[in-house]
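Morning F.,

Quick status update on the modeling queue. The single chain you submitted on Monday has been processed. Sequence for confirmation:
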Amino acid sequence: MGAGFKHHAAVGQRQVLSSVPQNSVETRQRKRQTASVQSTVYLSLGANVGDRLGNLNTAIERLRNLGQVVSVSSFYETEPVEFTAQPWFVNCAVKLKTDKTPQQLLTDILELEQQMGRQRTQNKGPRVIDIDILLFGDSVLDTKDLTIPHPALHERRFVLEPLAEIAPDLQHQSLKQTVRKLRDSLPAGQVVRKIEA
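Structure tokens below.
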């Protein structure tokens, strides 16, 4: 992330500088300071309030402030589950590369949701935007605020269908099965249909 340092030397000093081995301690330290560790993260996005497609597009654009958006699935209209007395959702999956830690990314995502008007008044209820961290590199976490892989990932067609579009061979770290296999193993039920562009 940080910019490399440029050293300017007088002509008479060039020979001295060039004699310093490239693998010197100073050089290694500088490389560590300027290199950033990037993790590949998979997110699930959903919206069922207001302009659903517009909300997803806005969220995707804002995610670019948190890392590099590598790929985005098609949009899918999905039947609500658990709390069904609400409008249908539009969902998609996003592959993001970021140098943030899982907790930092969660904090930033919660702030992004709040900025877009997300109000957590009803569990599983209608929402302007919902962004879940599904998988984060090879991380396996189980904390009060964050569980990775997402604990319901393997049960949700509205998550697996878009995710299988952009990462079918991605393996669930705990279940040791690919996203495609998890999707294909789901029982018939929830309606998930691709929105044609």
